[in-house]
Write the structure tokens for this entry.
Amino acid sequence: MRIAVASQNFRTVTPHVGRTRRFFIFEATPGAPAQEVERLDMPRGMALHDFKGPGDHPLYSVDAIIAASVGRHFVQRMARMGITAAATSEPDPAAAARALVEGCLPPPAPHEHDEAGCSHD
């Protein structure tokens, strides 16, 4: 399984997946460590929230996307393309990728919403 993990700092799993431009790309299978195969460091305008085409986005080739937070609309948008979007409290990108394929990805940490609401898309 090819998994993109949002990591704006290239160290930890970061939130707000739609605004992130840096991702680890892992190949992961159950029972084995996740293997980093690529890093995406995309220019402005390529965050999924901003991308309007034309053409395919580099993340459209993955099977799953993991971040510390994902919004409902983002999950639905990715599902229409056959991509699983998941949020987690796991800070380690490789551990998160492995946990996803093992079926034991820790749920995201709860967070406060500001008065204007919170959009993760």
Remarks:
- The beta strands are 2-6, 22-27, 35-41, 64-67, 84-87.
- The longest helix spans residues 93-102.
